[in-house]
Amino acid sequence: MYKIETKGLNTFYGKTQVLKSISLSIEANTVTSFIGPSGCGKSTLLRCFNRMNDIVQNFHMNGSITIDGRDIYREKIDVIAHRKKVGMVFQKANPFPMSIYENVAYGLRVNNIKHQKFLDETVEKSLRMAALWDEVKDSLHKAAVNLSVGQQQRLCIARALAVEPSIVLMDEPASALDPISTAKIEELIYELKKKYTILVVTHNMQQAARISDKTAFIYMGELIEFDDTKKLFTAPKSEQTENYITGRFG
Amino acid sequence: MNHLHNEIKKLKSSFIEMLDLIKIQVVNSNQSLIKFDKDLAGEVVFNEKRVNAFELKIDKDCESIFALFNPVANDLRFVLSTLKSNSNLERMGDNAEGIAAFVLDLDSAFHPDIIKELELDRMSNICIDMLENVKLAYANDDTESARELFEKDEELNSLNNKANQLISKYILENPENIDNLLRLLILVRKIERTGDLIKSIAEEIIFYVEANVIRHGKNTIKGVN
To answer: Is A246 in a helix, a strand, or coil?
Structure first.
């Protein structure tokens, strides 16, 4: 069984159709990159997986998205609980105005977890998984906003991991970072896929090539090509994909 | 046209220039052997330095494109193929130099009857024709012309086989001349080897245009392993 499957997914903002009949299947513990020009619908697709589009006015969709075999739009699901299972990291690091510790523990606290030892252990485990522990272990109670932007982004990843998701969505997670911080995030993604299924939207084609097992090229709302990254970047089947990745358009 | 595609265009021009240089080397080395022309042979040996310098330049250009532009898809395949074909051209240059150096070492010409019977002129013409066609195929991304070269290589191979038999016969009949005849065998093989190297370039052209690997009998259809 695939971890994530979409079938004939169409999405609309009011009367404007954004995604057109998207069907794809994603295996567990893989990294999938979504590439395509700005406005092609890749972020909309990413946000469908944790139902974040629900909060956008006039958003509606048809088709299906199943995660672990459950249709996340048809079956009665608790959306809040669902978003715990599908964590998200955004382009711009957005630490809460509180300490490093509290940022990571935030998701647990809103879930009413108060057991201090469990909180301590989860914060440490999450920071370790986000490759940030060694850098912040002596300043856990200092303000998170004082971290560098790269550290803030890894903190956001730690915060997403603390509630134990099985899928992590990343919307251009390294686009605002310097090359060293970008390399750390990419290394982290590679490590995290052992435990999580990761979906990444990126404008950086080389990043998609470096980090992902599969790559999907989306153009004007259509899934033009979805294939092994190696194949897509060496011998794409579609001429449109070839023209896009070689910079001949887009 | 973006920066990468300008660099790729320049690389293509350089490779074509190198092909022209190699063609001159092949023509002159073969003619120096057929006509026992030591001046021509000397020219080939002298020009080998230019071939080597050109090879290094193209290698460096490919390296820069990889490092600076991270090419993908057909751009990646093109640069990879050009890099490999560049080595093949350089080896053709080595073969030409090898033939010329041998001519310079010879005390006297081979008997014209042997040269005629071995059809060295024909072999040489096929090589030159192949070089001209591989240049057109490369310049125009023309895989049909590239495929036509396989047949020509077969023709060279059969002439080489025929030459082997003839030289064996000559050795049996003239055992006192065995040294020179064995050397001649090596020279014929060098000419034949040029055909093999051109065929490899043709395979690379098919690879970069169609993403189709046909080396070692592989025939992968685009997108399917």
So the answer is: coil
For residue B220, pLDDT over 80 is answered with: no
Contacts of A233 in chain B (CB under 8 A): 72-73, 76
Q: Does A205 touch chain B (CB under 8 A)?
A: yes
Please report which confidence band the pLDDT of residue B221 belongs to, taking 50, 70 and 90 as the band edges. very low
Whether A166 contacts A196, CB under 8 Å? yes
Distance CA A248, CA B32 (A): 48
In the sheet that holds A86-89, the strands lie side by side as A86-89, A167-171, A197-201, A31-35, A214-219, A222-228
Helices (H), chain A: 42-49, 79-85, 100-110, 116-129, 133-136, 149-162, 179-192, 205-211, 229-234, 239-245
- How far, CA to CA in Å, does B27 sit from each of A19, B96, B121, B126, B154? 61, 9, 10, 11, 20
Integer Cα distance of A128 and A143 in angstroms: 19
Structure tokens at A45: 């697709």
Instruction: Please tell me what DSSP assigns to residue A143.
Output: B
Contact B4/A at CB under 8 A: yes
Q: Is pTM, for the whole model, over 0.90?
A: no
